[in-house]
Amino acid sequence: MLDITELQRDYITEILNISMGRAASVLSEMVSEEVSLSVPEVDFVQRNIAAEKFDQANVSTMSGVTQSIRGAIYGDALLMFPEEKTLSIVRILLGETLPVESLTEMEQEAMCEIGNIILNSVVSSIADILKKEIMSSLPRFIKGTGCEVFAVETSNDDDLVMFLKVNFGLESQSINGYVTLILNVDSLQDFIFQLNEQINAI
Fold first, then answer.
1. H-state helical runs in the chain
2. Burial of residue 172, with CB atoms counted within 10 A of its CB: 0-12 exposed, 13-18 middle, 19 or more buried
3. How many domains does the chain have?
4. Residue 152 domain-assigned?
5. Residue 74 has pLDDT above 90, yes or no
6. Whole-number Å distance between alpha carbons of 47 and 183
7. Does residue 73 belong to any structural domain of this protein?
8. Residue range of the domain that includes 72
9. Is position 160 within any domain?
10. CATH number of the domain encompassing residue 102
11. What does pTM read for this prediction?
């Protein structure tokens, strides 16, 4: 397990809150309504523990968006909400009032657009820390339990997850979501090394 100091955790949280502020500004312009995004906590855990945290905090299926990332770091970025909350978010952003039982293709596309904005803000912040390029794939809509989303049964147990709880605030309601980065150990160690360089330069 990679040890993260309180100072490192606070620094990462501060950087990510800045990136979330940028994403919130873009989303606010899209929906003509104030959108707030904040990261109250950051944690680094193994893949199976991230899945457990997911499922303990949420009794329903999760849905959201995933993107593969490569370049300075390799892994996957995910934005996830409880499925019924995802529907609420998309309805608000689309201005939809008609009741629907499940996400339509148009709504899935809208969720991918939201995820693309938020995840790219996070990945861009990490690229700034590393001072290297990180590329992202096109966003893809996914849903499932924590174990399914994090592919616990079929993936490398050594991979670590940067686990962010995110407060997604709209004028009408506040919704808790999750942004996670699944990184191999080498990528995460490089990230922490560069992070220390930034902290020591302050």
1. 6-31, 47-57, 83-94, 105-130, 146-149, 185-201
2. exposed
3. 1
4. yes
5. no
6. 9
7. yes
8. 6-201
9. yes
10. 3.40.1550.10
11. 0.83
Nearby residues of 70 by Cβ (< 8 Å), 6 or more positions away = 134, 135
Q: Read off the pLDDT of residues 46-63 as tens digits, 9 standing for 90 and up.
A: 888 888 877 777 667 888
The alpha carbon of residue 181 and the mean position of all alpha carbons in its chain are separated, in whole angstroms, by: 7
Question: Rounded to whole angstroms, how far apart are CA atoms 104 and 190?
Answer: 40
Whose structure tokens read 């199976």?
48
The pLDDT value given to residue 136: 92
Residue 1 lies in a domain: no
Quick: pLDDT tens for 12-35: 888 888 888 888 888 888 777 788
- Tokens 């996830």 belong to 80
Please tell me the distance from the alpha carbon of residue 199 to that of residue 29, in angstroms, as a whole number: 33
Q: Summarize the confidence of residues 78-91 as an average pLDDT.
A: 80
